[in-house]
Amino acid sequence: MKKIEKVTLIGLGAMGVFFAPRISEQLGAGFRVLADGARKDRLEQRGVTVNSTNYRFPIVTPDHAGDPADLVIVAVKGYDLPQAIKDIRNQVGPDTLILSVLNGVESEEQIAAVYGEKHILYSYMRTSIAMHDGKAEFNPDNGSIHFGDKKNDPEALSDRVLAVRDLFDRCHIPYRIDDDMLHGIWFKFMCNVAENMTCAMFGVPFGVFQKSDDANYFRRAAMQEIVRLANAVGVDLGQSDINRQEHVIGRLPYESRPSTLQDLEAGKHTEVDMFAGTAVRLGKEYGVETPFCEMFLHGIRLIEDRKFGKI
User: Fold this and answer.
1) Averaged over 29-58, what is the pLDDT?
2) Is 107 a residue whose pLDDT tops 90?
3) Which one of 10, 69, 114, 279 has the minimum C-beta count within 10 Å?
4) Strand partners of residue 175
5) Do the Cβ atoms of 167 and 246 come closer than 8 Å?
6) Over residues 81-106, mean pLDDT
């Protein structure tokens, strides 16, 4: 097993700050952030503030060549993924591992189409981090990254998985290695589509699901659509997964807001195309009807058009 000593992170937003301070503390100069243009200037001038500490991480640009990373963590927004795939080209060597922590169900496939499946590990995040104006406050011990190969035998993990596990152990980053990563990725996708889209479209926090039958009507209907879609693509999602999330949603702080609603409130574009848009597109491809996802897709696009002055 090769020890991971050089890590490049692209995307220093809410997901990126979950990793950056801890990996930087452990690896020192072996950790760098990939950025260019205005984003690079902003990080150099202002850095990022995580739990009241300001960080100025080493920065490399996409044209920096000859020094590939052992691990590349892709933590950009969904709409920035195509550019990120191009930007990491000089960070990927023959043995580089790539960990995409984006929401959605397709980022690994999109990265593998360019760099090859041998570089890809599967992952998803279970954490809630709000970031505003370059500042994030969160409990580093709350939440975790789930990662691994598509299928993982706890008694016979691959060297690739063991290498990342060793890094996260050294950096004190909470993690889980799922037996079935695709099931976990689709489970989170189901929750994101149903909960993020409902909250964003109607402008309500997560806590609404603890008291409003009307909010839960939309959430549960969307969950059922994603279950049918997952089954169509070969992922064994079911009613037991919906039931499991019922316990989680009831424990969230009332005023917690999902990322899509945060983006709308901050006047930013959302990842609606990666959530509801993906569900609608795959539904048409696999013959699964997705009327609630279509409603979310066009409704949130309409809200964006209004906020950005297109209508």
Assistant:
1) 94
2) yes
3) 114
4) 145
5) no
6) 97
The answer to whether 14 and 259 have CB atoms below 8 angstroms apart is: yes
Q: Given this model, what pLDDT does residue 133 score?
A: 81
CB atoms within 10 A of CB 42: 14
Q: What is the pLDDT of residues 10-31, one digit of tens each?
A: 999 989 999 999 999 999 999 9
Q: What is the pLDDT of residue 118?
A: 96
pLDDT of residue 1: 67
If DSSP states are collapsed to H, E and C, what string results for 2-65? CCCCCEEEECCCCCHHHHHHHHHHHHHHHEEEECCHHHHHHHHHHCEEECCEEECCCEECCCCC
**7-176 topology per CATH:** Rossmann fold (3.40.50)
Q: List helix spans (H) across the chain.
A: 16-27, 37-46, 81-87, 107-115, 159-171, 181-191, 197-202, 213-233, 239-249, 259-265, 278-286, 291-307
Q: What fold, for 181-307?
A: N-(1-d-carboxylethyl)-l-norvaline Dehydrogenase; domain 2 (1.10.1040)
